[in-house]
Amino acid sequence: MGRPPCCDKIGIKKGPWTPEEDIVLVSYIQEHGPGNWRSVPTNTGLMRCSKSCRLRWTNYLRPGIKRGNFTPHEEGMIVHLQALLGNKWAAIASYLPQRTDNDIKNYWNTHLKKKLKKFQTGLDSHLSSPPEDSNTCDHFSWNFISDNNKQGSKLLLQQNHNSPNSSSSLYASSTENISRLLEGWMRSSPHPSTKVDEMTLHENKHNQDDQDLFKCRETSLVKDEGISNSTKTIPREYKSVISACESSGVAEKTMNTNTPPPFTYLEKWLLEENAGQVEELMELPMIFT
DNA sequence: AAGCGTCACAACCGCGTCTTC
DNA sequence: CGAAGACGCGGTTGTGACGCT
């Protein structure tokens, strides 16, 4: 039925990328810009399938990616957005421009899910119920907050005190350097895909508050495909957020595909309605020291 | 010091969606 | 309009690092 997976072709290499391969890939993208992944293996001579090249770029080599431990704020954002959007990692990642969907997904699966589950178990056997009138999102928030309170604060503290690079391998550092090499190019290049990277690079230099983060998000929505704000076509990631919001009931009548992006709902919800909770999340490690 | 178990994360796989012809 | 190709997303796996015994 389906076509053969591209990576099953004879001669296609699998497994970890080498620094040499990364350099080849980065050099090629530096010259041609991201996209047209099909032609990348052909034109570079890389023995990798197009998919693998794209993933390597988007998840690892792309400039502006923040690696290392998630901050409590980011954790809070992820928990809220996951509760709201479900496992729409790409959509969630678009609100955390420095993080990739893969990164967030991994972090959720290895840390947050476990943390919530652990608390839920403890909750069932020992603790009182969450607020009676809590909706799904609040329920999650409550769990998360309580988890931090009773069980998770140690973890968070640990993460706060760990150096972001503490677990980085030597090669991870080398790819980071490759990424940094691109920064100049990304700033100067007129290529449409650079907008988000410029913003995230900027964010690397300055601590941004929520507003800046969402400005960043706004910019990120015009990335890669060169979609301008005035373009009628709705970017794919918009659509995923729209459908997620619609299905979760967050989107109301005022939302339609011709109106401002749906992130304004989330923005509003996160910044206003739940701002206190997010802040609370951020403060918990300090509170419960 | 060696063996074993666990954790974290990079990478792969399969499938759905979009685009092009 | 349908088929085929290209791309993107979410789930899963493989493996190296680390900690414990």
Which overall shape is indicated by the principal axes computed on the Cα atoms?
Answer: elongated
Based on the coordinates given, report the CATH architecture of the domain at 68-122. Orthogonal Bundle
User: C-alpha Rg, in Å?
Assistant: 20 Å
Number of strands: 0
Chain-averaged pLDDT:
57
Spell out the CATH superfamily of the domain at 68-122. Homeodomain-like
CATH class of the domain at 68-122: Mainly Alpha
The main sheet comes to: none
CA(first)-CA(last) distance: 57 Å
Strand content: under 5%
Can you offer a commentary on this structure?
By secondary structure, this protein is mainly α. Among the domains are: 12-63, Orthogonal Bundle (Arc Repressor Mutant, subunit A), CATH 1.10.10; 68-122, Orthogonal Bundle (Arc Repressor Mutant, subunit A). It contains 13 helices and no strands. It has helices at 19-32, 39-44, 50-61, 72-85, 89-93, 101-125, 136-161, 170-188, 195-205, 210-220, 236-248, 263-273, 275-287. Helix 9 (195-205) runs antiparallel to helix 10. The structure holds a DNA duplex (21 and 21 nucleotides).
Describe the secondary-structure layout.
Layout: H1 19-32, H2 39-44, H3 50-61, H4 72-85, H5 89-93, H6 101-125, H7 136-161, H8 170-188, H9 195-205, H10 210-220, H11 236-248, H12 263-273, H13 275-287
Helix pairs in contact: 1-8, 4-7, 4-13, 6-7, 7-13, 9-10
The protein binds a DNA duplex (21 and 21 nucleotides) through residues 2-3, 5-7, 14-17, 35-38, 49-52, 54-56, 58-60, 87-90, 101-103, 105-107, 109-111, 167, 169, 236-237, 239-240.
